[in-house]
Design brief:
The chain has 9 helices and 14 strands. The chain has 281 residues and is an alpha/beta fold. The chain has 2 domains: 69 residues, Urease, subunit C, domain 1 (Roll); 140 residues, Alpha-Beta Barrel (TIM Barrel). The strands form 5 sheets. It has a 4-stranded mixed sheet with strand order 5-4-2-6, with no helix packed on it. A 3-stranded parallel sheet has the order 1-7-3, with no helix packed on it. Strands 8-9-10 form a 3-stranded parallel sheet. Helix 5 packs parallel to helix 6 and helix 6 runs parallel beside helix 7.
Length: 281
């Protein structure tokens, strides 16, 4: 079993908490600490030690972690809350719901957020969905009104072809670099943390990326293939869905300082011939 304290909870003034008895994996590569004691004071880890050697402060709330593993919260860099909770991959039920049916987007987002948190994921980059729902849900979690990991959201992605979006609010269609930049400004104004590009031309992504960059934010591009690779490196932010990289591309990545987010689950979800299949469960 795994014990991870939700970030939203640790950010509240909860006094002193002692997590006692678990196998501690601290994320620094060293051996696990068995029968550990972790003392949390407010929102900071104050003391880490071993049971029987590290005193538990009087009045502390004690969490019994015997038989569990205690570790830092995990971070998932590529998530679609509107897709994870749907239970049905593409194309039926795409993005959690058939867009001809009832709109259950927020319901599915809540299910996905709770599922991620219960699996120890305490920070999520949600890269595609309804902009208003994404921003409002992120803010509700931060205020403690909803349960879920800390969210960083893009809202609707920006594309030259939105036919693959299950609902119109999941995508903003553009036809030029100028429109791409205008759509990015609209997203930033709506409270998005990032701006997601999908199916754009290199000139589009350069114009789009300038907007979040000027606001101190990033523009992660979706994609696989040389064209998307080039504009991902040009934007200087990330390469999404990348699993096979040549040495020359790796050198460019190092020079540009971009992130690589391989999202390896796509290996199970997509067939080699490009057709979409049900991911194994």
């Amino acid at each position: 079993m795994l014990f991870v304290a939700p970030l939203a909870a640790l950010e509240q003034p909860l006094g002193t908490i002692a997590i006692v008895g678990g196998q501690l994996v601290d994320g620094h590569g060293g051996p696990p600490l068995h029968r550990s004691v972790v003392i949390i004071d407010g929102n900071k880890i104050k003391t880490v030690g071993r049971e029987g050697e590290t005193p538990v402060p009087a009045g502390a709330k004690v969490i019994d972690a015997h038989g569990m593993t205690v570790m830092p919260g995990l971070i998932d860099m590529h998530v679609h809350l509107v897709l994870l909770g749907g239970g049905v991959p593409y194309p039926q039920g795409q993005w959690g719901t058939d867009w001809k049916g009832p709109n259950r987007t927020l319901e599915i987002m809540k299910i996905s957020a709770r599922e991620l948190l219960m699996h120890g994921v305490t920070t999520v980059r949600d890269v595609g969905g309804d902009t208003k729902l994404s921003v409002d849900f992120r803010d509700a979690i931060n205020l403690g009104k909803e349960v879920g990991p800390r969210l960083f959201v893009t809202g609707a992605f920006i594309s030259r072809a939105c036919n693959y979006a299950a609902r119109p609010t999941f995508c903003t269609q553009v036809t030029s670099p100028e429109e791409a930049a205008a759509a990015a400004r609209q997203l930033i104004g709506a409270g998005a943390d990032w701006v997601k590009a999908w199916g754009l031309q290199p000139a589009d992504i350069r114009a789009l990326a300038d907007v979040p960059h000027q606001a101190g934010k990033r523009a992660p591009p979706h994609g696989v293939g040389p064209l998307l690779q080039d504009y991902g490196l040009t934007a200087g932010d990330s390469l999404e869905h990348w699993q096979a990289l040549t040495l020359s591309v790796i050198e460019k990545i190092g020079q540009a300082g971009v992130w690589v987010v391989p999202s390896l689950m796509t290996v199970g979800a997509y067939k080699p011939d490009g057709r979409i299949s049900r991911a194994p469960r």
